[in-house]
């Protein structure tokens, strides 16, 4: 039993990497519970809708724009959180979770997975922070200053989580989104090797330079 966690901020390319993982045969959500395409992500978000809603509640009133790391899961949310994870566990022996909020909330998810004796591995995705800020500015129609603040906040949180994963000896693969798009076959081969699955032409074809939004 293994969970694949994709770690990276908003507009960092995590949807592209999650799409590759899905095309490598690892489900990203329960049937009917996947966040699909949108104007800003025309090929899909590849996110677990229920888990994203729970994570949004965990971040508090500020949501993803003003995230606050909780000390743990509130007692009223804990049964819902655990029940959903158990549904994921029961549906597949290996599954993927992608949510930019995990830059803040990874310790919460990691704690629950360890409680359920579920091993996990992390695929970290980084992107030039100015490109992230510009993509956020366009998508959210926010000021440059606000977009840069969010981009740097999530990048700092991602780096902090990486430090924890290294200390805990969690299997970790680090990817740069620019390098992924520059050599798609090599990136898919690295990811497939890390996940111990065979690369597929569909996974390579899914990656496209047009996925770079900025």
Protein described:
The protein has about 210 residues and is of the alpha/beta class. It has one domain (about 1-210): P-loop containing nucleotide triphosphate hydrolases (Rossmann fold), CATH 3.40.50. Helices cover about 50% and strands about 15% of the residues. The chain has helices at about 15-25, 50-60, 80-90, 100-115, 130-140, 145-165, 175-180, 185-195, 200-205, and strands at about 1-5, 35, 45-50, 95-100, 120-125, 170-175. The strands form two sheets. A four-stranded parallel sheet has the order 4-1-5-6, sandwiched between helices. Strands 2-3 form a two-stranded antiparallel ribbon. Helix 4 packs parallel to helix 6 and helix 5 crosses helix 6 (about 145-165). The longest helix is centred in the last third of the chain and has 24 residues, at about 145-165. The chain is globular and about 45 Å long. The termini are far apart. The model has no long low-confidence stretch (mean pLDDT about 95).
Summarize the structure.
This protein has helices at 14-23, 49-58, 78-91, 102-115, 129-140, 144-167, 177-182, 184-195, 201-206, and strands at 2-7, 34-35, 47-48, 94-98, 119-126, 172-176.
Question: What is the secondary structure topology, with strand pairs?
Answer:
Layout: E1 2-7, H1 14-23, E2 34-35, E3 47-48, H2 49-58, H3 78-91, E4 94-98, H4 102-115, E5 119-126, H5 129-140, H6 144-167, E6 172-176, H7 177-182, H8 184-195, H9 201-206
Parallel strand pairs: 1-4, 1-5, 5-6
Antiparallel strand pairs: 2-3
């Amino acid at each position: 039993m293994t969970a694949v966690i994709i770690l990276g901020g908003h507009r960092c390319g995590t949807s592209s990497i999650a799409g590759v993982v899905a095309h490598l045969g690892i489900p990203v959500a329960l049937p009917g519970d996947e966040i699909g395409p949108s104007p800003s992500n025309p090929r899909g978000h590849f996110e677990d809708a229920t888990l994203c809603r729970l994570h949004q509640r965990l971040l508090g009133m500020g949501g993803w724009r003003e995230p606050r790391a909780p000390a743990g899961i509130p007692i009223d949310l804990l049964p819902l959180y655990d029940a959903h994870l158990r549904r994921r566990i029961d549906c597949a022996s290996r599954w993927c979770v992608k949510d930019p909020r995990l830059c803040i909330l990874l310790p919460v998810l990691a704690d629950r997975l360890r409680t359920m004796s579920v091993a996990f591995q992390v695929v970290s995705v980084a992107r030039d922070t100015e490109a992230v800020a510009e993509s956020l500015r366009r998508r959210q129609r926010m000021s440059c200053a606000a977009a840069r603040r969010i981009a740097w906040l999530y990048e700092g949180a991602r780096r902090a989580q990486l430090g924890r994963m290294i200390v805990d000896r969690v299997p970790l693969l680090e990817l740069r989104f620019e390098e992924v798009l520059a050599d798609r076959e090599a990136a898919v081969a690295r990811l497939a090797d890390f996940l111990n699955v065979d690369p597929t032409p569909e996974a390579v074809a899914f990656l496209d330079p047009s996925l770079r939004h900025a």
